[in-house]
Amino acid sequence: MALKDINLEKLGSEMLDSFSETLRSKWVDVGPIAKAEAQKLLQTMLLVEELQVQGKITHDGARAMLDIQRSSTRVALLTVEGLNLMAVEKAINAALNTIKKTVNTVLGFTLI
C-alpha cells in the first residue's frame, strides 16, 4: 500500500482537528494557515514516498525533508499574533502524532 492510496483527505482532516484542539483560542486567526500547512506536510510525505520508491532519498534525507517542512509550518503559525513557540510546537506535534502510525507503517520506516 502507498500513501497515495490512503484517504489523504481523512489524514489531513485528522491533522486539522488536532491543530484546532491545541490552538483553540486562536483558531479564527490560525485556522486557514493551519489548513494550508497540514496540506504541505502531507505533500512532503508524499514526495518522500515517491523519492524512496525511486531510490533517490535515504531515511535520514527523508527525515530532513520533513524537518524542513516542520520548520516552515512553525514559522507560518508563529505569524499569528498571540501564539508562542511552545503552543505552536505542541500543535505541530499533536497533528503529526495523529497520523504517525499510518504514515510510518506505509513508508516502512520511522519518518515521524
Task: Report Rg.
Answer: 14 Å
Low-confidence stretches: none
CATH architectural category = Orthogonal Bundle
Question: What percent strand?
Answer: under 5%
Query: CA-to-CA gap between the ends?
Result: 18 Å
Q: What is the string of SSEs from the N terminus onward?
A: HHHH
Shape: globular
**Overall average residue pLDDT:** 95
- How many structural domains? 1
Q: What's the CATH class, please?
A: Mainly Alpha
* Quaternary form: single chain
CATH fold description: Enzyme I, Chain A, domain 2
The largest β sheet comes out as: none
Give me the count of strands. Answer: 0
Write the layout of secondary structure elements.
Elements: H1 8-22, H2 27-53, H3 59-78, H4 85-107
Helix pairs in contact: 1-2, 1-4, 2-3, 3-4
